[in-house]
Specification:
The complex is a heterodimer of chains A (430) and B (293).
Chain A (H helix, E strand, L loop, with lengths): L1 H19 L8 E8 L6 H20 L7 E8 L4 H13 L5 E2 L5 H13 L4 E3 L5 H4 L6 E3 L8 H12 L8 E7 L2 H11 L2 E3 L6 E4 L4 H4 L3 E8 L7 H11 L3 E5 L3 H13 L6 E4 L5 H7 L6 E5 L8 E4 L2 E4 H12 L5 H20 L4 H9 L7 E3 L2 E3 L13 E6 L3 E6 L18
Parallel strand pairs in A: 1-2, 1-3, 4-5, 6-9, 6-10, 10-11, 11-12
Antiparallel strand pairs in A: 7-8, 12-17, 13-14, 15-16, 17-18
Helix pairs in contact in A: 2-13, 3-4, 9-10, 10-11, 13-14
Chain B lengths: L1 H31 L6 H19 L7 H20 L8 H24 L14 E4 L2 E4 H23 L1 H11 L1 H6 L4 H26 L7 H15 L4 H22 L1 H4 L1 H13 L14
Antiparallel strand pairs in B: 1-2
Helix pairs in contact in B: 1-5, 1-8, 1-9, 1-10, 2-3, 2-4, 2-8, 2-9, 3-8, 5-6, 5-8, 6-8, 9-10, 9-12, 10-12
The chains are: A alpha/beta (430), B mainly alpha (293).
């Protein structure tokens, strides 16, 4: 009897105590959904995006949440499949009742998703999806958290050549090879001066003529496209590039995996260009895969750990260095841009919620659209304000170069911030 | 002429690796009528075993091959016991095993992703990015080594099947299960052994693949169609056919890639798969395969 009374008392006390420190109810939780390619072709980038989002949300919650509400991040694996990504975002909105979403990785997934989120009246903050076509569909809910559309990567590359290489030493010829991928095709269109067309109705989006290869004074001596999936013939491709005699090799890969494959193949055939530029390869896995062969390779990036960007998170100052420290502590290794970019997306959404005092997506879109260079969103990628299409204003790509067998050094633009390394040119061969 | 020689060399080099990747799949189908869609996922498991031996202990990927093969053979026995043994007597065994093998592939991919993340890996012994240059021609050392080892392993397997008592039993089972059982062959043991050998071959292939291709858990989806096309072209169950199919299609893909661009080289495998199924479903060696001869 005494035992029963004791148990009952204990249970009652426990239930009362629980009531006193009740966990957040459903209404107190602010749900945000993100569908990411955690498996499939984009899994390397997708997993890192997940880490970036999760770290940001955990820090926000440590700092008291948003409007005093705990943030719950719902992440689903879309297996790198656009249809699955769309279905998962529909579920976030219509079943899970999320109040906001974070964008997914890659232009391939983001392009069809843009229509779905616009139709549902959701803010669409994009971590990755640089193809110009995404931003010319007339949506006003879309905001890109990287420097510029992929078609304009070549502009920074052209600037690098003109500013850092003496006139008589600049490469005179180029080989441009690329994956048949939404993003890689976009970069290629800019370099080769192609017309960019909307795939849904064939309408002209932008005519990139004459292209950045031509405007940099180079002759195109070789170009080839490889399929998006299942390509294994890297040595044959590398040998064709070598035999073209191109002084500059531009390989536009859709993933770090492809960047590793093409670099190893170029090393095997002993290609010896004066300059190599890849569209992917800032990841630590790239250096692990190719070793010292990475030396001299130039890659554009949206983020660098040495960039002295100040931002805010959870209403408090949060520097780029804080991000590197927090990420390293959470995951045991340093971050790269694939985690920094989604972290910036999360910061932007948080600032929009704080700026509007709520989670109304239309209001958040208006608030983000009203940002200016003097009153921007502040993230670990630096400041953001956007034009009417959702592309950032006045934000050039950062150019990095692998040096000294493992250092990814920032080399251009030279006036972006302190700590710029000298570009190694010409490459010293594999 | 130099171009044709170069393209042929590159095709043969790649085909040698594909041949080993497909031979285990072919053996398992020949003996057990199991279309093991999980085979490429198990190759990736072997590649991971090799990678960590190379990364943590500095062991050359080629030297890791026996360990990888033994490890995967054990894994193969477990998979067989859990997933494939129970329904072996079913008239619809092959149909059932397609679905089960698909499930196994998903489980293996998930397990590898959970253990090692989806980060890409590759081993980098010096020979992986070296080549032998003869005038205008180059021979990639990594693929040359992989191809020679592949052919040695497949040749040894062929000798084992042709001349050993157990090999007789395996071949007899491939030809006619009922007759083999009437003659005293222990079908359960032969099936288990064949599956273990087939998966051990996946382990060997994984070691070689680890320095030829990048890999991550989901990579196997890219390989299954290629491997199926090799096996179907050669004749399901014929290891010799798989080798011939791998070399033939890889060389053809190399020519097509050079002539029409890389986009079309990958198509060679799929076009071959459709054509063979339409014109000669039994494949090149389907009616008098190496195993059945």
């Amino acid at each position: 009897m005494h035992m029963k009374t004791l148990l009952l008392s204990t249970a009652l006390a426990a239930s009362m105590a629980t009531g006193a420190v009740a966990p957040a109810t459903a209404d107190d939780v602010l749900r945000i959904g993100a569908s990411l390619p955690i498996t499939g072709n984009f899994s390397i980038n997708g997993l890192k995006h997940k880490q970036g989002y999760e770290l940001c949300v955990s820090i926000i919650n440590e700092r008291g949440g948003i409007h005093g509400r705990e943030v719950e991040l719902i992440v689903s694996d879309n297996r790198s499949d656009p249809a699955t990504a769309i279905a998962q975002y529909e579920r976030f909105i219509n079943v899970d009742g999320v109040e906001a979403v974070f964008g997914t990785f890659s232009s391939k997934l983001s392009f069809p998703l843009a229509n779905v989120l616009a139709r549902n009246g959701m803010l669409h903050p994009l971590p990755a999806g640089g193809a110009l076509r995404i931003y010319r569909q007339g949506h006003d809910n879309i905001f890109y958290f990287q420097p510029n559309a992929a078609e304009y990567v070549g502009a920074t590359l052209e600037g690098l050549i003109e500013d850092l290489i003496p006139e008589g030493e600049r490469p005179q010829s180029a080989a441009v090879v690329h994956a048949d991928d939404f993003f890689a095709n976009a970069v290629s269109d800019g370099l080769l001066g192609n017309e960019v067309r909307n795939p849904s109705d064939g309408s002209l989006v932008e005519n990139m003529a004459p292209g950045f290869i031509a405007s940099a004074g180079m002759e195109l001596v070789y170009t080839e496209t490889w399929p998006e999936e299942g390509f294994n013939d890297w040595l044959r491709l590398a040998n064709s590039i070598k035999r073209s005699g191109a002084q500059m090799i531009i390989a536009l890969t859709s993933s770090a995996e492809e960047a590793t494959q093409i670099t190893r193949a170029l090393e095997t055939v002993q290609a010896d260009p004066r300059l190599i530029y890849l569209s992917q390869g800032t990841q630590a896995e790239f250096h692990e895969g190719v070793g010292a062969a990475s030396d001299g390779i130039i890659i554009h990036t949206s983020w660098h750990e040495d960039a002295p960007f100040d931002s805010v998170l959870g209403g408090q100052p949060f520097t780029n260095g804080d991000f590197v420290d927090a990420f390293s502590a959470a995951y045991g290794h340093a971050p790269d841009e694939d985690s920094a970019i989604p972290f910036a997306v999360c910061q932007g959404v948080e600032q929009a919620m704080l700026g509007t005092g709520g989670t109304d997506n239309a209001a958040m879109g208006e608030w983000l659209g009203a940002r200016t260079q003097d009153d921007p969103v502040e993230t670990v990628l630096g400041s953001f304000s956007w034009d009417e299409t959702g592309l950032p204003e006045n934000k050039p790509f950062l150019m990095t170069q692998w040096q000294n067998d493992g250092e990814l050094n920032f080399i251009y633009p030279t006036d972006a911030f302190d700590g710029v390394a000298d570009m190694q040119f010409p490459r010293s061969g594999f | 002429m130099a171009d044709i020689i170069q393209l042929t060399i590159l095709g043969l080099a790649l085909g040698g690796v594909f041949a080993l990747m497909g031979s285990g799949l072919s053996l398992v189908f020949g003996v057990m009528r199991v279309v093991n869609l999980a085979h490429p996922a198990l190759i990736i498991a072997g590649a991971y075993a090799t990678y960590w031996g190379w990364r943590l202990l500095g062991v050359d990927p080629v030297l890791m091959m026996p360990f990888s093969a033994a490890l995967l053979a054990v894994v193969g026995i477990v998979i067989y016991k859990v997933f494939f043994e129970k329904d072996a007597a079913s008239a619809k065994y092959s149909d059932l095993t397609v679905l089960m093998a698909f499930a196994v592939a998903m489980i293996v991919e998930g397990a590898l992703g959970g253990m090692f993340t989806n980060t890409q890996r590759v081993t980098s012994p010096s020979y992986a990015t070296e080549a032998i240059f003869i005038g205008e021609i180059f021979i990639p050392k990594g693929q040359l080594i992989a191809g020679i080892i592949s052919m040695t392993i497949i040749g040894s397997l062929g000798l084992f099947l042709k001349f050993s008592r157990t090999g007789y039993a395996i071949r007899a089972t491939t030809q006619n299960r009922e007759a083999a059982e009437l003659l005293g062959v222990n079908l359960r043991f032969i099936a288990l052994l064949s599956f273990a050998i087939g998966i051990a071959l996946a382990g060997c292939a994984g070691s070689l693949v680890s320095f030829v291709f990048n890999f991550f858990p989901a990579k196997h989806w890219e390989w299954i169609a290629i491997m199926m096309s090799l096996v179907v072209l050669g004749g399901m169950g014929s290891i010799l056919g798989t080798v011939v199919g791998a070399l033939l299609l890889s060389v053809l893909a190399s020519y097509v890639g050079a002539a029409a661009g890389a986009t079309w080289s990958t198509m060679v495998f799929f076009v071959a798969l459709f054509l063979v199924l339409l014109v000669r479903p039994q494949g090149l060696f389907g009616d008098k395969s190496e195993l059945a001869s």
